[in-house]
């Protein structure tokens, strides 16, 4: 046949839209034309494919007029991921492999000049889409384990183009890669029991984990803010299969192929010099940023006021919606970003405001300017603000009543299960209608909360978030209704709102 059609997949954000590779051989002046909005790396594929076929001792139809179309034409294509599909299309059009051998297949892979298959990024989203279409996915051997994470997909992997040709001709069958084998057990994380003292901060961390609330820790250097934040993933419930696949798909698109880390909840800690594109995503070819790579996990921002204010303000939308929209002239992409924000900061520029030693020499104006780097709308979206203080140093590990991660994780898991049964989401993700339905107060407590919020100067958003925290506190204690005790404790976690400048 002179016309061959091979199915493949592009990489667009974390999506894998279908691409049809059409190869036509015609009589006329020998030439090779590649159309369909290919980028530079895609246009170079014709040279890689020619050399790969020749070095693999396959016939390249050099005496024909070759036209290769990547459809749809308005979809940008990048990288070498279409090399394998183009090569198979040429072989089919020149009758070197059966015409119907690729009817129910999709091909992804880059070709070396020798004909070897090299891995490409974003295979896991393509495997998910391929499973939905009930097609077989042809990939390089190096991508096999990644594609096989998707249950129900049929994956054929090969090291060389010749192996695939023999398989498609029926000369030597390649066994399917076992799919749905699941993720390996995540590596152990640091234990909460290793943090000495800071009982109130540990309780706040458990509350934050139980309701997926955002948490801001502020205090002098050396109080354990970073140490405490790093223990949060250890008390969060493990990812379910769907969540693990979502996390793995994002990491696949970003080129992170460490399968051993994918089942664990992400913990991202970008430097305070990170740009807006690095944090929220973007670039010439938009890719997920730190907040999307923290999807279903933790985003830890240390030295929060040192981040550029414009960068921090870009967090406001994803903190509310759980996704980020990246708009470019050619395309608009949406990345998931349902992360839990844990931030840390010093109380003043030198870091020692309120220290008993009196070493802080910051003026009220300096403190106000330092804290002014954080806007009110951003602070409103952080549910818990907790001050930490230096405690006496001790090498003893026998601190009584010190909770470990296993005990804390059991409490967190029980509270989350209660929330999901009641409202099908965690407390931090409740909409206004959900707050009215599941966070009801009696008339006396409602009036008390209104007076307290007015006295503390809390906005309506901050008050609603305090109410969600109170709901989580009640869930941890397995109480059906929110009481005055939970309301009072929830308001105590708004300490930064009422901290004086000096």
UniProtKB/TrEMBL annotation:
Transmembrane segments: none
Name of a matching Pfam family: ChlI
Domain AAA+ ATPase as annotated: residue spans: 211-392
UniProt KW keywords: ATP-binding, Nucleotide-binding
Gene3D superfamilies to which the protein is assigned, alphabetical: 3.30.230.10, P-loop containing nucleotide triphosphate hydrolases
UniProt similarity note: Belongs to the Mg-chelatase subunits D/I family. ComM subfamily.
Protein known as: YifB family Mg chelatase-like AAA ATPase
